[in-house]
Amino acid sequence: MAFRSCQILGRPVIAPINLTKTPSRNCYFSVQNCSLSSSQSHKQLVSEVKDKLEKEHSSLPIGKNGRDDEDMILWFLKDRRFSVEEAVAKLTKAIKWRQEFGVSKLTEESVKSVAETGKAYVHDFLDVCNRPVLVVVPSKHLPDVHPPVENERLCVFLVEKALAKLPAGKEDILGVFDLRDFATENADLKYLTFVFNVFYYYYPRRLGEVLFVDAPFVFKPIWQLVKPLLKSYTSLVRFCSMDTVRKEYFTEETVPANFRD
User: Fold this and answer.
1) d(CA 15, CA 137)
2) Is the pLDDT of residue 23 over 60?
3) Which of 36, 211, 241, 244 lies 20 to 30 Å from 67 when distance is taken between CA atoms?
């Protein structure tokens, strides 16, 4: 296995170069902060965050995805470059949002009506980098058909479902937007703002790459409006063809049905 250095979101990462297997898709894994390589240092910082949350935000829930969830705390510490104060602030906001939005109450049944449109789903298989895959089909999204809150619930439910499929040692998911047949009536900037705010504030750095597949000409002006909404995620976007998706991200057996010949 060979390695090369590169940049993702302004941070150094090391990318393994696959010399033996096809498709030869580079699968990145991030080095969040090389100056804090000691697990003991991480544990101390996690402990500091837990203590501050207990003292300053004792009303927040405990347990999984709560103020004492050490895995969640460590993830937000990494996102905030191991700043305890910044991690506490962002984590507090995220936990409160989870409560208010009712994330723990989302079920297949609660999002069934909007999920049946096929506008988005979690793929059954991982990609060649062993990432869960969230497929979005914007041509099936009609803003006025379902109330905005139903679309928002589907988004969060699918993000949670994708993250639940993360293999051990993996940190992020692949987002695939199938833009074939996209038309102006499918454009929904308010919903897109919600989607990317969810990833930016509440699931930071969980989106490893975003593919815009076979974008039509009418998508170009929409993209110019969307780019500012993506914030740092802009650097993760790749415009590509259906053929690229098939050959670089999946095997013949695992490619989503949308992208089969």
Assistant:
1) 29
2) no
3) 36
Structure tokens at 76: 């937000």
Buried b (16+ CB within 10 A) or exposed e, 76-94: bbbbbebebeebbebbbeb
Residue 38 pLDDT: 58
| pLDDT tens figures, 42-97 | 899 999 999 999 999 999 999 999 999 999 999 999 999 999 999 999 999 999 99
Mean pLDDT of the chain: 87
* pLDDT of 149: 96
- What residues does each domain of the chain span? 38-103, 107-249
Instruction: Give CA–CA dist 219/182, Å, rounded.
Output: 7
Q: How far apart, in whole angstroms, are the C-alpha atoms of residue 223 and residue 227?
A: 6
Neighbour tally for 149: CB within 10 Å: 11
Residue type, 95: I
Task: State how far the Cα of 11 lies from the Cα of 235, in Å rounded to an integer.
Answer: 12
Distance in angstroms (rounded) separating the CA atoms of residues 7 and 30: 9
CATH homologous superfamily, domain 107-249: CRAL-TRIO lipid binding domain (3.40.525.10)
